[in-house]
Each structure stands twice: as C-alpha cells, then as structure tokens.
Amino acid sequence: MTRARLVDDPAVKDCTISEISRFNEDLCRIKGWVYNKRSSGKIVFVIVRDGTGLIQAVASREDVGDEGVKLLDRLPQESSIVVVGKVREDKRAPGGYEIHLLDFRVVDEADPDYPITLKEHGVDFLLDHRHLWIRTPRQRAILTVRARFMAACREFLDKQGFIEVSAPILTPSVCEGTTTLFETRYFEDKAYLSQSGQLYMEAAAMALGRVYCFGPTFRAEKSKTRRHLAEFWMVEPEAAYMEFEDLLKFEEAMVSYVVARVLETCEKELREIGRDPEVLAKIVPPFPRMTYDEAVKALQEKGYEIAWGDDFGAPHESEISLMWDKPVFVTHYPKAIKAFYMQPDPSRDDVVLGADLLAPEGYGEITGGGQRIHDFDLLMDRIREHKLPVEDYQWYLDLRKYGSVPHSGFGMGIERAVAWICGLEHVRETAPFPRMLTRMRP
Ligand code: 4AD
Ligand code: MG
C-alpha cells in the first residue's frame, strides 16, 4: 500500500494566494497554474498563480526528491498544479510571502507552445488570444477593478433605495437614434438590440419610484476609436420627481462613491495596473460645471473650429476635460444634437436639461443623462420631429397620460468609466471579451 500523499491530506487547508498572510508558518494547499519558473539545478522556483495573485514556491530535492525537481523544472508555463507547502514571510517576495514546497500534483501538463509568453506581444495578437490573455496579472487586475466598480454602483443605488429592474435586450423601438441600431430577426418580425434601457426605466420609475437597470447595451457605431465598443455595459438610474439640479447632485455623489470604493477595495490592483491612487483621491463633490455655450467658447479660444450647434467630437471632449482635475458636467446642449426625450430648458427653448459628465485627463464622456419630457403634447411633437413611428411609442406616451411627473436619469458606461479609473489607453481592455467594429472573436 502506498502512503497517502501530503497533497491529498484533508488536514491541510486550502488557501488562496490573496489570503496567504493568514497561513504564515502553516501548511496550506494552493490550486493554480504555473505562471513562470527558474531553476538552479538543485532548487526550482515556481511562480504559481491562482486567479487571486502570484506566489513563489521554492522546491528542493530534500523535500520533493530528485524526480520532483526534474518534473517541475520541465513543466510548461500554464500547466495546472496543486501545491502544498509551508508559508514563510519574506520581505523580498512580491506579495511578502513565499511557499516552501513539500508536495505537489500536476493536474494537467500544458502543451509547451503556450502562445502568450512573458515577452511583449502586439495588441492584435493579444486580442486574438483574449481567452488566454485574461490570465496575465494586469488583465486580472483590470477585470477585478471592473467587478468591484460594478458592485460599488449597485451598493450605492441599493443604499439610496433604488430598485434594480432588468430592461429587455430585444426591443421594438429606438432609444438613442436610428443610425446605431443592431437589427435582428424576431420570429416573423424584426427587433433591435437595446441601445439603452432608459425608456423602460421611465415606466419602472412611475411604478417603483427610484429604479435602475444594469446590463449590456449595443451600438452599431462605425467608430474605430479608443472609446467605442459595439457592446458595452451600462448602469442606468431613473427617478420619479427628480429634477435636473438634483440629478446632477445625485450623479456626482454616485461617481464619487464608486471611485472611493474602488480605491478602498482595489489599491493593490490599481498599483499593479500602474495607476496612481492619489489622482483618484481628488474625485469628491462638487464637480465643476460648464454650459454647452461656455464649452464652445472655451474651445474657440483654444483655437478649435467649432460653431454653436456642432456636436463635440472626441478631441473637443478631451480638451474640455483637460481643463479640470475632476469630472466636469457639460450642460444645456442644443436640442438639435440630443435625443428626442430631453426636456427643454424652461428659460430657453433651443437647449435641453441634459448633461454629459466628462472624466478628467482627457477621457471624455462617461455619463449621459438629463431630465425627460413629461408633457404629452411636447413629447408627441418631438417624436414626430425625429420621424419616429408614433405607434411604437404609444406605451411610452402613456406614461405622460396617466399621472405624469417630472423625472430624470442617466446612464454610465462601465467600460469608459473603468478605463478612466484604471488610466488605460483604450476601453477594450476593460471588457472581458470586447466587441468592436472589427472584432467579434473570441
Ligand atoms: O450618452 P448615451 O448614449 O446615453 C444613453 O444611452 C441614455 N439613454 C442613458 C440614460 O439616460 N439612461 O450613453 C450613456 C453612456 C455614455 O456616456 C458612455 O459612457 C457609454 O454610455 N457609451 C459607450 N461606451 C462604450 N462604447 C460605446 N459605443 C458607447 N456609447 C455610449
Ligand atoms: Mg452621450
């Protein structure tokens, strides 16, 4: 009979690398993959990753035998492995600890041609291998920030009494303009992938007061910029009886809260990504505001050729956002460049009570929102002006027929906000599997 191996011993506790400090001087078992290794003949140093972090395991002949050392030495990168060893504090080690390896089991020996080596790769190559690229520490850190950011959004909204209401993805009508619709077949009919859950949230707000939806949205945008995805996630709060001024206060409170929560829960990840947390510590209310008029004037003074009535392009947004070290609200856009549902400014009919929030450091728009039209006739006029099929909006018009109230909301794009928080060049790294104009795989 063979002796039970330490790697299988039920008395040894499983542990993740992130909680390793609790096991100092104790035995523990880590289930992971070989990230890297080096050897000095008699000793092999294996860097193990388990999804929560990296740790160096040190294996010597005395503990794992000659065969063990040889096996580890030739084990390809990304082989899956279970290791048992004694945890030791080591100030020089990256996470402050290492493991003195006593036993291990190879679960699956990886093919020796793992495509993502520790050298630099081009971004197209990495995107083609996104299913493997996400195993690298930097991508792990970004996806962790994304998850904590999304959790913080829910946390804030739930605490404020907002009820999450899921909006449909398959929709019969347009929310954000007809040029960016993904059309799909819907049995004998056709449907569009949702551009925004807003219209449904307006209905839900009249039922539940304060609501939000959180999910994927789609834009067939033929833009190949570092800010555009064809599929992105959006959180969209909507509140009955909330007017424009209160919306802006609410938005800045939410953005400040989620940034603070990410700082609290992801400091290690932000440093790993190379983001200075100090920059984000400045994100506290109140946020500066500029009207569209002021923004156009400021751009003209900086030499931009832009006229009143033009929409901002990415360079304009970047320029405006570089004027401040906090996010800045740009408000009161011309009616002609905004969506059909925006409430006109009561003192000026040519601009609307809408606001975009532009993130600093040149990031540009991360949220868009405003007060919605609550008057039936006015909304009907706007639907007609936009040449939208009235019959498709009958249900939406109903909200203005049965106890209509002023109401407001906004949408925050998760990928854009996370790209800013992480200080990334491009939104693509913040989506687990990005969908872009030229890419739908893997
Ligand atoms: O400004 P948008 O189009 O506003 C709406 O969809 C409103 N219906 C939201 C609402 O009021 N409930 O989009 C909102 C946000 C943008 O500020 C941006 O962060 C993000 O969604 N976004 C995109 N993110 C990535 N790729 C794209 N193609 C995006 N388009 C919008
Ligand atoms: Mg917008």
- Helix percentage: 25-40%
Overall CATH class of the largest domain: Alpha Beta
**Assigned CATH superfamily of the largest domain:** Bira Bifunctional Protein, Domain 2
Oligomer: single chain
Total beta-strand segments: 18
CATH architecture label name of the largest domain: 2-Layer Sandwich
Q: What is the mean predicted local confidence, pLDDT?
A: 96
Strand content is: 25-35%
Task: Kindly report the spatial arrangement of strands forming the biggest sheet.
Answer: 6-10-11-18-17-16-13-12
Number of domains: 2
Largest beta-sheet details? 8 strands, mixed
Instruction: Count every helix, treating DSSP H or I runs of 4 or more residues as helices.
Output: 13
Shape: elongated
Q: What separation lies between the terminal Cα atoms?
A: 48 Å
Ranges with pLDDT <50 over ≥5 residues? none
User: Which cofactors or ions or other ligands sit in this model?
Assistant: 4-amino-1,4-dioxobutan-2-aminium adenosine-5'-monophosphate, magnesium ion
Q: Could you please say which CATH topology of the largest domain applies here?
A: BirA Bifunctional Protein, domain 2
List the helices and strands and how they pair.
Layout: E1 27-39, E2 43-49, E3 54-60, H1 61-74, E4 80-89, E5 97-108, H2 123-128, H3 130-133, H4 137-159, E6 163-164, E7 170-171, E8 183-186, E9 189-193, H5 198-208, E10 210-218, E11 231-240, H6 244-265, H7 267-273, H8 277-281, E12 289-291, H9 292-301, H10 314-321, E13 328-331, E14 344-345, E15 348-352, E16 354-359, E17 364-372, H11 376-385, H12 394-398, E18 407-413, H13 414-422
Parallel strand pairs: 3-5, 6-10, 12-13
Antiparallel strand pairs: 1-2, 1-4, 2-3, 4-5, 7-9, 8-9, 10-11, 11-18, 13-16, 14-15, 16-17, 17-18
Helix pairs in contact: 4-6, 4-7, 4-13
